[in-house]
Amino acid sequence: MATGIYVVGLGVSHEADLSPEALQVLQQVDLVVGSERQLATLVSLLPVGKATLLLPKLEALQELIDESLAANRSVMILASGDPLFYGIGRWFSRHFSAEQLTFYPAVSSLQVACHRLGIALQDVEVLSLHGRPLLKLRTRLRQHQPLLILTDAHSTPTALAQECIACGFVDAKVTVCEALGYPNEKIRGFTAQELVSESCQIEFDPLHVSLLEPGCNRGFLPEFPGIPDQHFVTDKEGAGRGMLTKREVRLSILSQLQVAKGECVWDIGAGCGGVSVELAYWNPNSPIYAIEHHADRLGCLEQNRQRFGVVSNLSIVEGRAPQALTGLPVPDKVFIGGSGGELPALLSHVWTLLPVGGVLLCSAVTEASKHHLYQFYETRLGSADSHYETLQVAVSHGNSLAGQVMYRPSLPVTLYVFKKESR
Predict the structure, then answer these.
(1) Are residues 137 and 284 in contact, defined by beta-carbon separation less than 8 angstroms?
(2) Are residues 162 and 247 in the same domain?
(3) For range 13-42, the mean pLDDT
């Protein structure tokens, strides 16, 4: 048999459900690697004397496979269901070339759960909380949008219910599909309120998939960009007060940045996190770095990071820019909302770092900051190295006075946007 890595899905059953091609691989491969449960599903299919090994940690697995390939030995890796749908296949694709890999998919537990429940897979969103923070759930909760969730010991049905209620989805329902394909298969439905009640002493099989139906959104999590100011934790009393970029300006910033998948973004002078939290919330595959030095604002920033569940892709950097920027990944886009009096040096430093196509967006309220931005704008004109745009956002909010509507203006915010076209 040709030297290589053969990643084989086992299906959803207490006995492996292999295709004829996968069965042929099993007969010819030099080594079979899988978890204790996975190997147990192959008992009736394993040839006598076939070498098997319990799946080690990924670092050790990398060494094992490298050694096997170097010795011209073929390796079969067992996977649950479809290896390339929230499975181990993704790890292999990242660490080995396509020429070294052959995949044999099978039906996944997610597909089986949908068929057991009679719902179309395209009508649900899939979320894996296996090995991921439970708070990540908050980034995916949407009104009436079902979530099919792969879980671990930290994301039990009860934990999911607690999160839903904490975020205002008090009518949520959880359907737990346990031990799918095994003789003890069980499917049970609960309301979130039932799961969190003191009388609830239900134990669930560790091998399960949960369908979460959130119901109505009565809490603070957004359904669309532009989180209301009062939903943020800030460093001053009163809803939406404090060092927070207000919603109308924040929406303009999000629109101007146009963050694409995987782009690295710096939010310098992040304050309480209005911009950085929204960037991280709506761009889950982009690393966002919030740079802030003020102690009270850092505390609020961390609380908002937790509150909106953006713990996987929002990193808080304590310190003053530009010193605090040392060691950070090179950004694709940068927003400067506060500079601590270092704006000229900061603009020059960030511009040098940005790649061609990178975007620098700055906001200013004071005349001094506007002046520094205008000087930078003139420098860019002279260098002919960028495309620029500038606008001023002026917002008035309506209030009631003596039974009449009166509009109170907020301070206008000037935005400068520079897109780098050459070095």
Answers:
(1) no
(2) no
(3) 93
Closest CA to 281 of 290, 292, 291: 290
Domain range enclosing 199 = 111-213
pLDDT for residue 403: 86
pTM: 0.92
Burial class (CB in 10 A: 0-12, 13-18, 19+), 123: exposed
- Determine what percent of the chain is predicted with pLDDT higher than 70: 99
Residue 245's CATH number: 3.40.50.150
Phi-psi category of residue 15: left, alpha or beta, with phi > 0 → left and psi -120 to 50 → alpha: beta
Confirm whether 222 is domain-assigned.
Answer: no
Rg from Cα positions in the chain: 27
Q: What mean pLDDT is reported for the chain? A: 94
Angle of helix 295-307 relative to helix 274-282, nearest 10 degrees, comes to 30
Quote the tokens at residue 161: 């219910």
pLDDT tens, residue by residue, 178-199: 999 999 999 999 999 999 997 7
Position 87, amino acid: G
What is the distance between the alpha carbons of residues 42 and 37, in angstroms, rounded to a whole number?
9
For residue 127, the domain's CATH number is 3.30.950.10
Give the lowest-confidence range in 197-201, 218-222, 337-341, 356-360: 197-201
Assigned domain for 115 exists: yes
pLDDT at 305 over 70: yes
In which element (H, E) is residue 307 found? helix 295-307
Q: Which helix (H) or strand (E) holds 166?
A: helix 157-166
Cβ atoms within 10 Å, residue 36? 8
| 85: in domain | yes
Residue 103 phi/psi, 5-degree rounding, is -110, 140
Is 220 within the bounds of a domain?
no
CA distances to 136, 213, 278, 285, 302 from 282, in Å: 12, 21, 6, 9, 18
- Terminal Cα-to-Cα distance of the chain (whole angstroms): 53
Domain boundary residue, one of 147, 182, 213:
213
Query: Per the structure, how many domains does the chain have?
Result: 3
Q: The tokens of 375 are what? A: 């000087």
- DSSP element (H, E) containing 392: strand 386-393
Q: Which two tokens stand for residue 418?
A: 């520079």
Q: Which helix (H) or strand (E) holds 301?
A: helix 295-307
Token reading at 332: 């694709």
pLDDT per residue as tens digits for the range 381-413:
999 999 999 999 999 999 888 889 999 999 999
